[in-house]
Amino acid sequence: MSCYQQAVDDFRLQIQMVEMELSMLCQGEEPPAYLESKVDELESKKLKLMSGMRYNQNARNAYWYVTARGNKDN
Question: pTM of the full predicted structure?
C-alpha cells in the first residue's frame, strides 16, 4: 500500500513543478502568443499527472479496503 502512497506523493510533486513552470511563463497574466503551445503542453502534462495520481489513489484505497476487510467473507 505504501508504494501507491509514494506514487501519489511523487505525482503531487510533479504537478507542483508544472504549476511553477506555468506561473513562470504566465507571470499572472495572459501568456504571449508564442508561448501558447508551451502552456498547452504543460496543461496537458498536468492533466495526465492528475489522472495518474487519481489511479494510484484509487488503487491504494482498493488495497486498503481488501486488507481491512480481511477474511470477513468466510
Answer: 0.81
